[in-house]
Amino acid sequence: MKKLTVASVLLIITVIITVNLTSCSVVISTEEGLQAFDEALKNSLNAELYYIKEKINDDGTDLDYPKKFAEIFVNVYGEYKEVGNDTDIYAPTKDENGKIKDFTIFIKETLGEGSDNAMQKRVHVGKSNSSKKGETLDYIFREIIKTSGKDMDYSLDPMSAYDYFESSEFQENYALSNFFTELLRIKHSDMFFLEKNGAIKNGVGVALKFKISDSYLTEYRQEFGKVSRFSGSKYISVEIINEKISQIIVFRDSKLSNTDVNIEAEPYSLSITYLGPIINMPKYDKSDWYNDSLA
User: Fold this and answer.
1) Whole-angstrom Cα distance, residue 60 to residue 152?
2) Could you give the angle at the alpha carbon of 278 between the alpha carbons of 272 and 284, nearest 5°?
3) Does the N terminus or the C terminus of the chain have fewer Cβ atoms within 10 A?
4) Residue 22 buriedness (CB in 10 A; 0-12 / 13-18 / 19+)
5) Residue 270, Cβ neighbours under 10 Å: how many?
6) pLDDT in tens, 225-257
């Protein structure tokens, strides 16, 4: 079995982008774009392994909530195999009980960077080796680092990655469906593709750019009591690779400080690959496991 490092994941992403940029681009119809969107969303939700980076860097321009910063990494990893001859598509390897081998989860969440309440949360869960040649056991390791005061809370408890994956904590915060909440809500009638390059097919990729309807934004606010992530947007970009969602970016016009110059800002972005880097688990019987450099 081959395992990926961070460098190899980045190399795969670079190769995919290079292929997409150099392949022949074809403008497709709105109907074809919507069909690709629906199929990619369905396929992504069925993925068993995934690596997510979500970034919120919102200055609150023209909206009624304050500046926010958050960066979240979620890596749901397991032993895998290549599917067919395509080295960009993977499937998990499973045991005789239908469970993914070497199933491991890593979460890193940074909130409020640059503020007095800044903090980072890290979770590792899966099979942990002993530092003293003992048996391998299932553990969950939690760390909360308050970056402003440099305070740190940490704990470890017995738990398998499967139990954590099925827990309400994970399902309500880090499951794929949570990151697709708004894509799952919008209707085709809420999506207005840009006149130029609104829907393009490029090799194994499809790039969609669309504006969102005012009625969707109003209904979202009425139902949830808060503004949509798409509020104030100039347009939304959704990229699809190998019939799965690979990137979502919200673009918004924003003024440069102390000027009347508008720039195109990215207050929200989400990047997804369907196989992340190897997760290095802490050792459960090492007293200072939290001091190790882990990813």
Assistant:
1) 30
2) 125
3) N
4) exposed
5) 21
6) 888 999 999 999 999 999 999 999 999 987 776
Pinpoint the alpha helices (H) of the chain: 6-22, 30-45, 161-166, 168-171, 176-179, 181-185, 214-224
Supply 207's token pair.
Answer: 């790039």
Q: Are 103 and 50 in contact (CB under 8 A)?
A: no
Asked if residues 275 and 51 have their Cβ atoms less than 8 Å apart, the reply is yes
Half-sphere exposure in the Cβ direction for 159 (13 Å, CA): 18
The residue type found at 112 is: G
Tell me, what DSSP letter sits at residue 130? -
CA distance 58 to 265: 9
- Phi-psi sector, 170: left (phi>0), alpha (psi -120 to 50), beta: alpha
Three-state DSSP class for residue 291: helix
**Tokens for 87?**
């080295």
Instruction: Judge contact between 69 and 113, C-beta under 8 A.
Output: yes
Return the SS3 of 12.
helix
d(CA 219, CA 222): 5
The CA distances from residue 68 to 5, 55, 110, 118, 266, in Å, are 31, 10, 11, 11, 13
Q: Does residue 44 contact residue 176 with C-beta atoms inside 8 Å?
A: yes
| DSSP bridge pairs for 83 | 86
Residue pLDDT, tens place only, 105-141: 999 999 876 666 788 899 999 999 999 888 999 999 9
